[in-house]
Design a protein that fits this description.
Layout lengths: L1 E7 L22 E7 L25 E5 L3 E6 L7 E6 L2 E7 L8 E4 L3 E5 L3 E6 L7 E6 L9 E3 L6 E3 L6 E6 L3 E6 L4 E5 L14 E6 L8 E6 L3 E6 L4 E6 L10 H9 L7 H5 L9 E8 L7 E6 L3 E6 L4 E5 L14 E6 L2 H4 L2 E8 L3 E8 L10
Length: 380
C-alpha cells in the first residue's frame, strides 16, 4: 500500500541518489523508467495507510503526493502528521525535510517557489526555493463564507479571488491556464489559450473564467491541467482531452512520436503497423474537447497531466499512460514517447491495484494497493 514514482529524478525527488536499486552509492540517476517506491523525509515508504493505524480504519491516514519540477510533497489528506518535502529543499538537491508546524494540514500545493498549505481554518503560503522558508501569505478561512473563495497562484499576486456565483468545487492549474469545476459539473477555463488548452475552439487567451460550451450539459467530476493541455472525466467515466498534442499527450497521432518510432525500433508500434498506414495524419492542436477511447477500458476514474504526458486510471485499477516519455515518466520501463494510451504492466505484474495517479511536469506518481493479499508483493 504505497506510492510509486517514475520519470525525472534530477533532484532526488523520487528516490535518493544511489539507493533502492537506482544506481551505485553516490550515483545521480536522473531517469527512472521502472516504478520505485517513494520515500519521505524519514526515508520510509510513503504509504496509503499508516502501519500504526488499525486495518479497519484505512480512511484515517490517506497519504497524498504532489509534485513540481524539482520537488515532491507528501502529506495526510486527513490532517494527521506533517508535510514532507523531498528533492530540492533547503537550497540543495537530494534532500528530505519535514515541515515544522504543518501538522493538521488537509491539502497542499507545491511549486518551484511556494508551498501552500490548507488547514481547516486557514491557508498559509511559504517560500520553499531557498535555505530558509518564509511565510508570505496567511488567510483565515470560514468554510461557511463563500465570499472569500479564491486560489493561490504560482506568481504574485498570490491570492486570486473567484466569484462566489461560480460555486467552485475543484481547480486545476496548468503552466499558464486554469480549469475550474463548478457545482453541477460545469467547467470554466481561463488564461493562455495559445495551444487550444482552454477548449473554446480558438488559440486566444481569456482573462476571466469562461464556460467550455462544447461540454455544456455534460456533468463532469474530474478536471486536470498539464503544461499546455487539459483533460476531464464525465460522471459516466468518459475521458475528454484538448490542447497541445506535440508529444502525443492527447492520445492523438503525433508527428514527433512517428519520427521517434522510425528512429527507435523499441517502440510500441511495430514496423509492420507503420507500413500499413496509407496516409499520415497528425494532430498538433485540438482546440475543442475530444472523447478519447482507451482500448479495453469502459470507464476512467482518475486522470492527471504532466508537462507533455498524461496518465489515467481505469475503474478496474489499471494505469494507462501516453505522451512524452524521455525520462521514463510513462512507466513502460523504457524512454520512449507514445501517442497511444498503453497499459503500465508493472502494477498488474506485481499484483497491484492502482488507486490514483498524480503527474509532476516530467514524472508520475501512483498510489497502489495489493490486489490479492495472498499473491506476490512488489519489491520495495
Amino acid at each position: 500500500m504505497s506510492w510509486f514514482g517514475f520519470g525525472f529524478n534530477g533532484f532526488g525527488q523520487i528516490v535518493p541518489f544511489g539507493k533502492a536499486g537506482c544506481g551505485t552509492p553516490g550515483e545521480k540517476q536522473v531517469k527512472i523508467a521502472v516504478p520505485a517506491v517513494v520515500k519521505n523525509s524519514n526515508d520510509s515508504p510513503v504509504r496509503l495507510v499508516s502501519e500504526t493505524k488499525h486495518a479497519k480504519e484505512p480512511e484515517a491516514w490517506n497519504m497524498q503526493v504532489i509534485a513540481c519540477w524539482s520537488r515532491t510533497a507528501s502529506f495526510s489528506g486527513k490532517g494527521e502528521g506533517q508535510v514532507h518535502l523531498t528533492g530540492f529543499t533547503d537550497g540543495s538537491s537530494d534532500s528530505r525535510k519535514s515541515i515544522s508546524g504543518s501538522g493538521g494540514c488537509v491539502d497542499a500545493w507545491v511549486t518551484e517557489r511556494y508551498l501552500t498549505l490548507r488547514f481547516t481554518d486557514r491557508v498559509e503560503c511559504w517560500t520553499c526555493d531557498g535555505a530558509d522558508m518564509e511565510l508570505v501569505l496567511k488567510s483565515e478561512q470560514d468554510s461557511s463564507d463563500r465570499k472569500t473563495e479564491g486560489y493561490i497562484a504560482s506568481e504574485p499576486p498570490l491570492f486570486r479571488p473567484l466569484s462566489p456565483q461560480l460555486r467552485a468545487e475543484r481547480l486545476a492549474l496548468g503552466t499558464a491556464h486554469a480549469l475550474l469545476l463548478c457545482a453541477g459539473g460545469t467547467i470554466y477555463t481561463w488564461g493562455s489559450g495559445s495551444h487550444g488548452q482552454l477548449g473554446h475552439g480558438t488559440l486566444v487567451a481569456e482573462e476571466e473564467p469562461r464556460v467550455v460550451e462544447a461540454l455544456w450539459g455534460l456533468p463532469v467530476c474530474v478536471v486536470a491541467a498539464g503544461g499546455w493541455h487539459s483533460a476531464c472525466i464525465s460522471e459516466g467515466g468518459d475521458l475528454y482531452m484538448w490542447g497541445w498534442n506535440e508529444s502525443g499527450q492527447l492520445g492523438l497521432p503525433s508527428r514527433r512520436c512517428r519520427e521517434e518510432a522510425e528512429q527507435n525500433k523499441e517502440t510500441v508500434q511495430s514496423e509492420s503497423e507503420q507500413e500499413e498506414t496509407v496516409e499520415d495524419v497528425f494532430i498538433s492542436i485540438q482546440a475543442f474537447p475530444a472523447l478519447l477511447d482507451i482500448p479495453h477500458v469502459s470507464e476512467v476514474s482518475s486522470v492527471s497531466c504532466g508537462s507533455r504526458h498524461t496518465a489515467a486510471v481505469s475503474c478496474q485499477g489499471d494505469l494507462y499512460t501516453w505522451g512524452w516519455g524521455d525520462y521514463g515518466q510513462l512507466g513502460h520501463e523504457n524512454l520512449c514517447s507514445s501517442d497511444q494510451p498503453s497499459l503500465v504492466d508493472f502494477f498488474p505484474r506485481h499484483g497491484l491495484h492502482v488507486e490514483d495517479v498524480k503527474c509532476g511536469p516530467w514524472n508520475t506518481f501512483v498510489s497502489a494497493t495489493q490486489a490479492n493479499p495472498a499473491g506476490s508483493h512488489a519489491d520495495n
